[in-house]
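Co-fold these.
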Amino acid sequence: MRYTIMLQLVAATTLVLVLAAAIFAWLQNRPRLEEADSPQVTILLTAKVGLSPFGLGRQSLPS
Amino acid sequence: MRRLLMHSPIAVALTWISAYLFVTLFPLLLLLLHPMPVERGFWVEFSVALGFIGLALMVLQFVLTARVNRIESSYGIDILLQFHRYSSVVALVLVLVHPVMLFITKPETLQLLNFPQAPWRARLAVLGTVAFLAMVVTTIWRKPLKIAYEPWRAMHSLLALLAVGLGFGHAVGVGYYLSLFWKQVLWGGLILVALWLIVYVRLVKPWLMTKRPYVVESVMPQRGNVWSLVLRPLGHEGFTFQPGQFAWLTLDITPLSMREHPFSMSSSGDRPDQLEFGIKALGDFTSQIQTVKPGTKAYLDGPYGVFTTERYWNSAGFVLIAGGVGITPIYSMLLTAAERHDDRPFLLIYAAPSWEDVTYREALEALKATLDLTIIYVLRKAAEDWSGETGYIDRDLLARHIPIHRGSRQYFICAAPAMMAAVERALLALEVPVTNIHMEHFNLA
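Predicted complex below.
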């Protein structure tokens, strides 16, 4: 009984973890505004539409 | 914590589940503090997130198995180890899904499996995954693979360290989310915590145990092929314990050897100067107990366990159900209660193969003089003149003896796993609240 309850808990928490991973992936790929040429414009646009502060501009990084 | 557990076990469970999710997800949240990456696609990011969660879960396993008292005191080591088994499998699945998802969505990444040609970061990932897989396989199928406990335990620690270390090396080598120094430091800190915990459990704690040795005072035969091993602290005061708890025992060898076994104390919890264990001659180690000579050095790591009446001070009484050598912790509960002049009613239902196999029989009968104790013996093979219960402890038998107000008592079951499961089912069928039923499994290896 106790182990059955635990198994259900592990299944439920695993679902939460997988959902969190999916949200993470969505956040990193969410629709964004057209890329602006000027960094200043990018910052203004970001502030105006309330994007995440983590999303200031794009950056090419090694995959 | 103990008071909260008595009144609201669900609150404690929710607290621990929240802590578990926080510890697993917080390192991933840190990765969001990152310049917006180039779009790599949902599935790549999803795969990467699962990999990082898998790595965090791997680190968490070191905490679960470190016998941390604060964590253990909520649910007991057997529950923690079972959670460790389940969550390790989850971690392995996540770690395996991480590359498989990449291989499906970006088939060109399959080239990373070409070990001689692959970059170091990919080689580290392959080696780490193989180490993790080997660790899980040798744990689940240890007995069919005929791996002895001690070498398995050493190998388990080594493979765990390799899996986590190589996994971290892979993440740093990829350098995408861990490209910033402070993130490497934070994730590296997690790995160092895991390393410290394993060094503490396997080396520091055993070394500390050598500073508190015990000596075997006597080894006495009891009924039912059980031996009482009596230990006396050597140069220190010993320890008190909550009746029903157990300790890891190492005999005649250094505790660094990893050859330790869990046994319940059968003596009074209030007598630190003389600790007694009831050990049934069953396995390789236990069948040698009778040959242990007085004067042999012993080492103890304990006490551990939540299978104790002490946590239920406000209970109106107790129903104790034992099978065979499962009487050991229950005898300790009764002995301690008698010494403390506990005035609550105790009902002991004790199953044994025969009247001659009833361990501690005379001592149990003697306790009736000082304790409100009713004993129901259940014999599988009874003499013709036996007028008591026979057969197995089932629903009908329990219905005849347990109080009508089921929830007024706490129920403790200690027996072989199959009997514990059957008795638990019977108690639940008799509408005993699930929170009033307590068991402790000893399949800790």
